Amino acid sequence: MTGATQEDSFTEHYWRDPHAALAGTRETCPVREVDFEGGRTWLVTRYDDVRAGLADERLAKDWRSSLPAEERASAPPGLPAPMSHMLTSLDPPEHTRLRSLVTQAFTARRIARLRPRVEAVAGELLAALPEDEPVDLVAQYAIVLPMVVISELLGVPEIDRDEFARLSTVLIDECPEPELERASAQMATYLEGLVAAKRAAPDDALLSALISASDEGDRLSDLEIVAMAMLLLMAGHETTAVFITNSVRALVADDSARERLARPESAPSLIEELLRWLSPALNASLRFATEDLEIGGVTIPRGASVTLSTGAANRDPARFGDPDVLDPDRNTTGHLAFGYGIHRCLGAALVRLEGEVGLAALFNRFPRLRIVADPAELTYRRSVHVHAPRTLPVVLGG
């Protein structure tokens, strides 16, 4: 089999069954080049290598950092604005400055205070669903719950939330460059107007707090505020929506695991194991080598892009025994579902809360929930970062 054929085989296998494809690569070629996101990237799949890479300062988020100093100033950002100003595209000191402005809004203590509101939203959404006819759990629950929560946290009007969900899906899924640029421009244009409106009439939501911090001298530009809002809206609902959708598929056939959701003392350990097992974000966003470096015995040349696979790392048998088994009693310490290092997911506590509350509310209210689609007929999002069905038809009662 030729190298090209092997590569084509991996790529197609990945779109069909990413966990199996990543496992095969981790076992036979743990650091290798593949075609992802429209270009070549070095895919890293072993736990130790991925964890080390997530904290390696030689792997930059801004691709311009890999260029010679004399070329950086004139190089284009590589992503449309404001995406190029997101935390996920920045390195210190810019990353440090921007992250510090929002960290306090996402502490575990602050997020815990949201529990009553998340419970109320989940209850309202579930009460509105029919029990005896098929509903799409993705569109009518998994996406809506986190979108409502993050929109309220930021201060986005209810009327605009469906459009935000559509645009963020475009920005995260693999799509043609013109479509990506259009979606980015549309979301940015709206958010620019929202920033102006909040500046004129501030409220107690996070977006107004960011504007206030900027006005008080923290040197946050309007472009940076828009970029931060865009990132929080996208990441604030996409990860949770994928997590809830895939968790339902796992739990619907596991009575003992579902029972843990009803017990406050056991639910958190189940959520951590689901996070490890499912890895809502299968791969971290691209990094770029600022110098020649070695990963797993392979030399990565300066300027090359690197994809650190948290999904592959979380199922590495060298780190977790029987990794393909969902075991709520296992020690999940060190799982990389939220990354590691300075770029660790800012909203980890929020995802945990929404996942636990959303799943518990669903199965406590509808213990006989069943999926009514043939698994072979489900269609999946084509994304390097997430793997989830586009729709999940279920009957809640009966």
Automatic annotation (TrEMBL):
InterPro entries: Cyt_P450, Cyt_P450_B, Cyt_P450_CS, Cyt_P450_sf. The keyword Glycoprotein does not apply. GO terms for cellular component: cytoplasm. Its main location: cytoplasm. Keywords: Cytoplasm, Heme, Iron, Metal-binding, Monooxygenase, Oxidoreductase. PANTHER family: P450, PUTATIVE (EUROFUNG)-RELATED. This is Cytochrome P450.
